């Protein structure tokens, strides 16, 4: 599941086509259908995804969370022009919960609000995984924010 989540904002109604550098080209969303076993059929307009590329779709109601789908097959559509249909692999879950977490850094004590996806029965582990994906040095005992990590690395140099 965690492989299919990206803590990055995708504007509503858009699809980000991620290139190998992790930058996104925005396409318009025409349709998204979730099928069995984590299969998704995504129709968009603009750009053209390639097999093995990742697509980001906004998670409804989120601040900065996207679903990250892997493209398995692509075909271009005749109508409307510039449209395409991609078969993708995504999370095989019907529902997951989007939660917000108030966290403060153990070094600089600055408080932040982070979003995380709860998908297992272990809310704390899901929160720690989300912190790590958002650049924190995190365990259940200790949390250090990305800017403190940067400061430390700068001092070490
Ligand atoms: Zn800090």
Short précis:
The chain has helices spanning 123-133, 146-156, and strands at residues 5-6, 14-18, 24-34, 39-45, 54-58, 66-76, 83-89, 97-104, 111-118, 137-138, 143-144. It has 157 residues and is mainly β.
Structure description:
By secondary structure, this protein is mainly β. It has two domains: 88 residues, Thrombin, subunit H; 60 residues, no CATH class. A six-stranded antiparallel beta barrel has the order 2-3-4-7-6-5. Strands 8-9 form a two-stranded antiparallel sheet. Strand 10 and strand 11 form a beta hairpin. The longest helix has 11 residues. The N and C termini lie far apart (36 Å). Zinc ion binds next to helix 2.
What attributes does this structure have?
14% helix, 2 domains, two-stranded antiparallel ribbon, 43% strand, Thrombin, subunit H, 11 strands, mainly beta, binds zinc ion, six-stranded antiparallel β-barrel, 157 residues
């Amino acid at each position: 599941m965690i492989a299919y989540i990206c803590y990055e904002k995708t504007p509503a109604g858009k699809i980000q086509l991620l290139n190998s550098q992790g930058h996104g080209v925005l396409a318009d969303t025409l349709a998204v259908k979730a099928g069995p076993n984590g299969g998704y059929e995504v129709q968009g307009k603009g750009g053209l995804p390639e097999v093995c590329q990742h697509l980001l779709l906004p998670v409804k109601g989120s601040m900065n969370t996207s679903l990250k789908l892997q493209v398995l097959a692509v075909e271009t559509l005749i109508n409307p022009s510039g449209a395409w249909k991609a078969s993708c692999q995504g999370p095989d879950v019907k529902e997951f919960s989007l939660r917000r977490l108030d966290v403060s850094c153990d070094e600089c004590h600055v408080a932040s609000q982070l979003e995380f996806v709860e998908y297992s029965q272990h809310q704390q582990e899901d929160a720690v995984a989300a912190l790590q994906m958002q650049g924190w040095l995190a365990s259940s005992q200790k949390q250090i924010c990305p800017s403190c990590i940067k400061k430390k690395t700068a001092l070490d140099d």
